[in-house]
What we know:
By secondary structure, the chain is an alpha+beta fold. Helix 1 crosses helix 2, helix 28 (790-819) packs antiparallel against helix 29 (822-845) and helix 30 packs parallel to helix 33 (932-970).
Amino acid sequence: xxxxxxxxxxxxxxxxxxxxxxxxxxxxxxxxxxxxxxxxxxxxxxxxxxxxxxxxxxxxxxxxxxxxxxxxxxxxxxxxxxxxxxxxxxxxxxxxxxxxxxxxxxxxxxxxxxxxxxxxxxxxxxxxxxxxxxxxxxxxxxxxxxxxxxxxxxxxxxxxxxxxxxxxxxxxxxxxxxxxxxxxxxxxxxxxxxxxxxxxxxxxxxxxxxxxxxxxxxxxxxxxxxxxxxxxxxxxxxxxxxxxxxxxxxxxxxxxxxxxxxxxxxxxxxxxxxxxxxxxxxxxxxxxxxxxxxxxxxxxxxxxxxxxxxxxxxxxxxxxxxxxxxxxxxxxxxxxxxxxxxxxxxxxxxxxxxxxxxxxxxxxxxxxxxxxxxxxxxxxxxxxxxxxxxxxxxxxxxxxxxxxxxxxxxxxxxxxxxxxxxxxxxxxxxxxxxxxxxxxxxxxxxxxxxxxxxxxxxxxxxxxxxxxxxxxxxxxxxxxxxxxxxxxxxxxxxxxxxxxxxxxxxxxxxxxxxxxxxxxxxxxxxxxxxxxxxxxxxxxxxxxxxxxxxxxxxxxxxxxxxxxxxxxxxxxxxxxxxxxxxxxxxxxxxxxxxxxxxxxxxxxxxxxxxxxxxxxxxxxxxxxxxxxxxxxxxxxxxxxxxxxxxxxxxxxxxxxxxxxxxxxxxxxxxxxxxxxxxxxxxxxxxxxxxxxxxxxxxxxxxxxxxxxxxxxxxxxxxxxxxxxxxxxxxxxxxxxxxxxxxxxxxxxxxxxxxxxxxxxxxxxxxxxxxxxxxxxxxxxxxxxxxxxxxxxxxxxxxxxxxxxxxxxxxxxxxxxxxxxxxxxxxxxxxxxxxxxxxxxxxxxxxxxxxxxxxxxxxxxxxxxxxxxxxxxxxxxxxxxxxxxxxxxxxxxxxxxxxxxxxxxxxxxxxxxxxxxxxxxxxxxxxxxxxxxxxxxxxxxxxxxxxxxxxxxxxxxxxxxxxxxxxxxxxxxxxxxxxxxxxxxxxxxxxx
Length: 991
């Protein structure tokens, strides 16, 4: 093998990278285990607050290779919500409320209300923007009314006027809605940071007015719903200066001193909590306050030193006042909110944190603490007075923010700024301080500028924050999934068990089939698995249950490359070549088939990743990475291992005593009966189409919208009894299916699905539990739930259709490029279409007949269909590659086209069987041990492997025979002198 040392070096580098990144996972898991042990009481219950305290104490501390715990957790291989529990939410900014706010009083007109209602209905079945739909509807309702007459008002001054064209107004509306989405995204980020979730995932979905939020480990869905829904609350408040609170801080110091003394006397030290008194190096806070005017003459030096130590263990002096190390904020909040501590300070004082922290010289994050003045709990001003805010540059070229207020706001702002000259005024959203600029002078007209040491990005963010108070832009939850921690723990168990069993079965099968050569393939498979996990960790990928399924399936499909290589080596050995030469030629001749077959699967994986979400995207991520590592392991690692054996002078066979004569000298006639198989397939597809029309499909909530609940009971439950109970409380019969066992069901309903009120989800949950409670003597609980709104369902369906069409087009194009004959492309695509229709027919015909397996059409089904397309193409391409080789071989010159293709099919039969058996074995393991979430997904892929193998042999290849014979008949006789010569035909095909 050329460049052997380079390949060996690359392998070592990949191994080191994998070890490095996987080590963060082990370190993180170890620390989380210690945190849980620390927070577990004598009864075995974990105190979440105590666990979070442990984590906070190490969050910015070096724990591994100079990395803080935060950095370690960012580099670990994270678990998805389905493995650790948590909540997945898609938020949608309400364009209806934004348009109403921008129209002002004109929003009450009949034409405006009618247009809003029609746009809302049209949006359920359209990908167009809400503004475009609204404008079309408004023109229908009021054809002679210009948009400028509706939206030209003081609030939109400077953007449009009464003479603006409809296109200008439409552009302005789209711009404002996009800005509202960005503001909502920033506010959501701040709310999630405040929520205190470890490793949240927050993304703005491209091309949509939606925000994706994933919160691992949360166990209070209603709190999350309240936190994420609704418009932001923008406030302006005065701020107490630190020297004005010297007396209260002095009392707090005494209080903390007494508490520290009591703790030292009675309690053991908190493990891992850092002693910040040694880290600040800032001296006594009490002494610094004394310089600012604090009266500490009555305190002796030892008492003052003790108070100083107590205060500096909690606070850090900062230019704006005080701050707290991030790891200590949980402790600080708990202390500051104690009633006895609040009594030390003025009654109108409220403690608030800054939105973002500042790192000190040792990279320890400090969060500024503000002492906000709120008389009777009310801020001096609220954000509804803001008319507009923009980012700009001042006369010195520095980034600044300008804001404009209405008349009422200008009056209040004048009063507030007059009494705050030289003092800060805090700008607050959702009880987090975004900035607190110092007032330079009285501002009489409501037009203000905020300057400071800002970047352009910071001024953009701040102008967005101020505009958040201008318009009501509440966010609504349009998609939601809640996975209980119990279900997550079960998913981990099922995933680990299925992975280990699947891996062992494949390893044993390879050894049983190939004997000694099998263990070399097994070592390559294990190295492949190691590289797969390492690369996933290095890319920051999230391991989900579907990702585990992808790993198991990758192991099964990784066998394919090794099988192609081994079968190629067997052919070379049977041709009489020496062992070393047979290995070299076997790798060389199998490379084309390996590359072609894996590229088609890779194309499908990319499409899965692009169009999929949730389960499908997790599976696609693992599949794509697994394909790449499988190719590397099969082509290079297997070669290195084989050549190491050759260097030692060892040779061995590529079969065992049991499999020596399997698939040897096959002479099956696949082609002559092709019309029979055409008829059989056609009959099945016709029956399937009839079932599509008259019976239809069971649609999951991904495609029809609705709410879905998995409910687990203490004992087995009769679905008919539960359905009757649910009809009583819901008013209609929901869909109820046994899910994973007789004691667990999935309930699907459209109850309150279009209700966007914040309490709609809680009402629906309550109704479900009310119905469950009607089954006396058999208590049940919701272990997971999900919600998909009508708009999301439509988008998902359209994306699924695009994904399938794109997969077919991409594979058609690739086959044409590689084989340069339309016959091969047509055969492949017709075969894939055949496979999809057959699977759909089975899902339609047998829906509701197969127990414990969901035959609903949903995102998981689409993912399985696309994976099946990839596998079927993989199988077909290997056969096509062999057909191409046989047609170009001079040995075929005396054989007919059907005979040549039959020989090619027989020569690949061993590969087809070994790969098919390997993949089916691991899929069966997933069905049995992988858990209910994956059972329907895996069942579809198992059907796909069976149907795909059938179509590759009996549909794709025979179609090539028919099309090539048709091409031959259409060609002029003069092109080739001997038109009956298969050799001439093969040369024409090759050309």
